[in-house]
Amino acid sequence: MDIIDTHCHVVSADLARYPRAPLGGKQSGWATTRPVTADEMA
């Protein structure tokens, strides 16, 4: 049986509460343009 791992990496739109600190010090262009709220994620 194959096992497939799926998960999300949430990028919050609230930078004051959840400041971004990406590994390696640089956030990807994709993540920079796609922040979401909790309602949008659900």
UniProtKB/TrEMBL annotation:
<protein>
    <submittedName>
        <fullName>Amidohydrolase</fullName>
    </submittedName>
</protein>
